[in-house]
Write a structure and sequence with these properties.
Elements (H helix, E strand, L loop, with lengths): L7 E2 L13 H12 L8 E5 L15 E4 L6 H15 L4 E4 L16 H9 L3 E4 L17 H19 L13 E5 L7 E7 L8 E10 L6 E6 L8 E6 L7 E7 L8 E10 L7 E6 L8 E6 L9 E5 L8 E6 L11 E6 L8 E6 L5 E7 L8 E10 L7 E6 L8 E9 L2 E7 L7 E6 L12 E4 L2
Bound molecules: calcium ion (4 copies).
One calcium ion binds next to loops.
Pfam family, one: FG-GAP_3
Protein name: VCBS repeat protein
Keywords: Signal
């Protein structure tokens, strides 16, 4: 795979032995080639093995593979050889291992022949196990430990060989910085401004006016997540109190319309809570159904006597609870001395809690609370290379993998740096060194919660 390039995957390539490609396929490829934004991207598709029936259409594609499960090693090798040598020569190839356990239709096949072919055939550029995720009782590769380990090792080997020297963003998934202005805006409405990660936060890629009026920042909080699974980050506006219902409410601004419309309005089952930072919120997919769930951090007043995390199910509009968990730290106050961010630190795909203690010791500290312990124990705690950062909201934090080495980095954003708002990142997994220091075009901001700065997920 070329650096920072994802293919455009075309589904439903019609069979039928046509002398010409099906017009729908021709039109789709023409549209891709005719758009400057996509003209350089490979067009990819997974076929069924009746290659002779799609011999015209396949010529339009750049990357091709096939899915057919239950073959012997010999049959499978012959089919791939036919694709490479006869029907679609000179292209790049995708290998699709059958991998589903406890399901009908797709068998669970050993990884050996697939990985061997990938490592020895330079034209094979993508190993795409069917399938990675689990659906219901059908186990995907991710939840079959031996398979996951084998395919992750193969993927890591590819990454190490092709991407280790890269400083560009991995496949375009750069963590942009969202500046959300809930008040004092010229438009009179809540606004979303996005700083572009690919320019190191030196330029804006969006200035958007939302349909939500100027807001009381004691009442509202914001989080980022893809609520509707369209690949575009949505903005969650979480209203603690003063709502139409007696509960905490969530209004989701749709990234697909640049936040001009809502993707949903929800009254959660959590009764209204007090303002300020005694309760903080974020979203992450706890139960791994692809829908972000609501993480509620109750920093003071929990019945457990500790800081607690409560998780509500995004898939049913936050109507059921996925867990109530006391965390290891004592109550953490109603100021911004501690921040809590759900993100997967240990690589098991379940969000852990990254707790940032800004004024707890001699420097800012990172405490990782592991999901695998039901958020009961720390899996890692360390002082960082960043000085203490106070108890107000002058310094705010976010998490993402800035340098795409597979380890979460911690973003530290100051609203009153030498040149105004600045972004720094502490390199994971140890957080002793920085891998980013940069200024932004955002002038200095107040040290309270009136302006929100969030790193994209
Ligand atoms: Ca979305
Ligand atoms: Ca979920
Ligand atoms: Ca985890
Ligand atoms: Ca990293």
């Amino acid at each position: 795979m070329g650096e920072a390039t994802l293919p455009i995957v075309i589904g439903c390539v019609e069979k039928g032995g046509r002398r010409q490609p099906h017009p729908a396929l021709s039109n789709a490829v023409a549209a891709i080639r005719g758009n400057t934004a996509t003209a350089g991207l490979p067009a990819a598709s997974i076929l069924t093995p009746e290659f002779g029936q799609i011999s015209q259409g396949v010529k339009l594609l750049d990357w091709v593979g096939f899915d057919h499960y239950g073959d012997s090693d010999n049959d499978w090798t012959n089919t791939l050889n036919a694709l490479e040598n006869t029907y679609a020569s000179g292209k790049k190839y995708i290998i699709v291992p059958g991998s589903l356990n406890n399901c009908n239709g797709v068998s669970l096949e050993g990884w050996s022949r697939y990985i061997t072919r990938m490592e020895n055939d330079p034209n094979v550029i993508w190993l795409a196990p069917f399938m990675w995720l689990t659906s219901g009782s059908c186990k995907g590769v991710r939840d079959l430990p031996a398979y996951r380990a084998a395919y992750t090792a193969a993927g890591t080997k590819i990454k190490d060989s092709q991407y280790s020297a890269s400083t560009s963003w991995f496949c375009g998934f750069a963590p942009d910085l969202f500046w959300i202005k809930p008040r004092d805006t010229a438009s009179g409405m809540t606004e979303v401004h996005i700083l572009d990660a690919t320019t190191s936060y030196s330029t804006f890629k969006l200035h958007a006016v939302t349909p939500y009026p100027n807001a009381n920042t004691d009442q509202v909080s914001f989080a980022l997540g893809d609520a509707n699974g369209d690949g575009k980050t949505d903005v969650y506006l979480i209203s603690r109190y003063n709502n139409a219902t007696p509960n905490v409410e969530i209004h989701i601004l749709d990234g697909a319309t640049n936040y001009a419309t809502y993707a949903g309005h929800y009254s959660t089952i959590l009764p209204a809570v007090e303002g300020g930072l005694a309760w903080t919120f974020d979203v992450a997919d706890y139960n791994r159904d692809g829908v972000p769930d609501l993480f509620v951090f109750k920093k003071v007043g929990g019945s457990s006597g500790r800081t607690e995390v409560h998780i509500y199910n995004g898939a049913d509009g936050f109507q059921t609870t996925l867990g109530h968990f006391p965390m290891p730290m004592p109550p953490t106050g109603s100021d911004d001395a501690w921040e809590f961010h759900p993100a997967d630190y240990d690589g098991d795909s379940i969000p852990d809690v990254i707790a940032i203690a800004k004024q707890n010791g001699a420097s800012t500290e990172v405490h990782i609370v592991s999901a695998s312990s039901n958020y009961a124990t720390y899996s890692f705690e360390t002082p960082t290379g960043l000085h203490t950062t106070g108890t107000d909201s002058n310094w705010v934090f976010g998490v993402n993998d800035y340098d795409h080495d597979g380890k979460l980095d911690v973003f530290a954003i100051t609203k009153s740096g030498a040149t105004g708002t600045e972004v720094h990142a502490l390199k994971g997994p140890s957080y002793q060194q920085f891998n980013l220091h940069t200024s932004t075009p955002i002038a200095a901001l107040p040290s309270d919660t009136s302006q929100t700065l969030l790193i994209n997920k």
